[in-house]
Write a structure and sequence with these properties.
Blueprint lengths: L4 H11 L21 E5 L2 E4 L4 E4 L14 H12 L9 H13 L5 E5 L2 H16 L3 E5 L17 H4 L16 E4 L4 H11 L3 E6 L15 H12 L2 E5 L11 H6 L5 E5 L9 E5 L1 H4 L18 H14 L4 H23 L4 E5 L2 E5 L8 H5 L3 H13 L2 E2 L8 E2 L6 H20 L2
Parallel strand pairs: 3-13, 5-6, 5-7, 7-8, 8-9
Antiparallel strand pairs: 1-2, 2-3, 4-10, 9-10, 11-12, 12-14
The protein binds (4S)-4,5-diaminopentanoic acid.
Length: 430
């Protein structure tokens, strides 16, 4: 007999804290029962009760080709037959490293890992080891995984819980982390003026995707590049979300700004657990076994994950892929703006490549302070109304949304019909 979502949630809560393995999935900030997903195909997911949804979470980014693309599934099946994990080098990992290096010119060398958290944690250790300096700058609302030194007013799941810090992180562990406002290059200059010789790196989501979607203001990323170069600090672009999502070369390709190190995840694994960090050859030469900065992982370069990543990278390299993806994102974003305006709901939306943001505010926010000033209650009402009609947006007002290449006109138009009714419900509830 089929279990309902509610039954599964009750059962999960007995053995899994909060019933989930990642906090935002618990629906705490939107209320209601989390959907337990059973299968997915293209732009759709199905829950345990057999209900179909148009999915705008896309596994939080990786599902750029839509779910379960046949070529990716085939690659995984073929690789699995030959063994699941060796803990030894393989040719496939060289191929993925070469593909990443060829597509991102800033990545002269690459180390593959198993998650975005691992990638950013390792990149920061490397930056500290290379420069011999202790401090790092991060930005309010940017999320770089859950390593201790980064859990300082971090976004994403933490924001969702309404708790800006994490218990269990001793203050000494974050004593070298400076948290500055996103899009405020002047604050960065001031920090460098005060602590310049101690700052190892600046890490930034060049388009923030973990406090909803927030784009960099003109000159912000360039300003970071200049100040890092001036003080000999490393600039790290955390492109775990944006890499191969906003365009064929991530934000660095769109802006022409070359970071010293880049972190990747999500799309490069095509749905399997993969991360990567890489950049300047002289910096990467400090990683063990070449240098003194330790980093390792049993599942790094895992053959099944490499197969999924390589198949995905091949497909997204097709001519016109990103133009089509951006076109579909725009159709959604513009359509949502129109429908909200028709219902008289204060609303803004933004999109870049295959990512978008929905904001229950008059204007598109440019910082953590602005995004958290939005109307979370309105988001909840909208979210629930959409979910009830088969459209699954991220269950938090502080997450970006993701469009895949399989979100065709019919899927987007169906979404807009649902959104129109959700905006009306919202307007009536006021
Ligand atoms: N907070 C993560 C995305 N920004 C959620 C990951 C997950 O729950 O899978």
């Amino acid at each position: 007999m089929t279990s309902t979502n509610a039954e599964l949630f009750d059962r999960a809560c007995r053995t899994i804290p909060g019933g989930v393995n990642s906090p935002v999935r618990a629906f705490r900030s939107v209320g209601g029962t989390p959907r337990f997903l059973k299968r997915a195909s293209g732009p759709h997911v199905w829950d345990a009760e057999g209900t179909q949804y148009i999915d705008y979470v896309g596994s939080w980014g990786p599902a750029i080709l839509g779910h379960a693309h046949p070529d990716v599934i085939r690659a995984v099946q073929e690789a699995a037959v030959d063994g699941l994990s060796f803990g030894a080098p393989t040719e496939a990992e060289i191929e993925l490293a070469e593909t990443l290096a060829a597509r991102l010119p800033s990545m002269e060398q690459v180390r593959l890992v198993s998650s975005g958290t691992e990638a950013t944690m390792s990149a920061i250790r490397l930056a500290r080891g290379f420069t011999g300096r202790p401090k790092l700058i991060k930005f309010e609302g940017c999320y770089h995984g859950h390593a201790d030194s980064l859990l300082v007013k971090a976004g994403s799941g933490l924001l969702t819980l309404g708790n800006p810090n994490s218990a269990g992180v001793p203050p000494e562990f974050v004593a070298h982390t400076l948290v500055l406002p996103f899009n405020d290059v002047e604050a960065v200059r001031q920090a460098f003026a005060q602590w310049g010789p101690e700052i190892a790196c600046v890490i930034v989501e060049p388009v923030a995707g973990n406090m909803n979607l927030i784009q960099p203001a003109p000159g912000f990323l360039q300003g970071l590049r200049e100040v890092c170069t001036e003080y000999g600090a490393l600039l790290i672009f955390d492109e775990v979300m944006t890499g191969f999502r906003v365009g064929p070369q991530g934000v660095q390709g769109l802006t022409g700004i070359r970071p010293d190190l880049t972190t990747l995840g999500k799309v490069i694994g095509g749905g399997m657990p993969v991360g990567a960090f890489g950049g300047r050859r002289d910096v990467m030469a400090q990683i063990a076994p070449l240098g003194p900065v330790y980093q390792a992982g049993t599942l790094s370069g895992n053959p099944v994950a490499m197969a999924a990543g390589l198949a995905t990278m091949a497909l997204i390299g097709a001519p016109g892929f990103y133009e089509r993806l951006a076109q579909q994102t725009n159709r959604l974003v513009e359509g949502l703006r129109e429908r909200a305006a028709m219902a008289g709901v204060p609303f803004a939306a933004d999109g870049i490549g295959g990512m978008f943001g929905l904001y229950f505010s008059e204007t598109v926010p440019t910082s953590f302070a602005e995004v958290t000033a939005g109307d979370v209650g309105a988001f909840k009402t909208f979210f629930q109304a959409c979910l009830a009609q088969g459209v699954y947006f991220a269950p938090s007002a502080f997450e970006a949304g993701f469009v895949s290449i399989t979100h065709d006109d019919a899927v987007i138009d169906r979404t807009l019909d649902v959104a129109e009714s959700a905006f009306r419900t919202l307007a009536q509830s006021r």
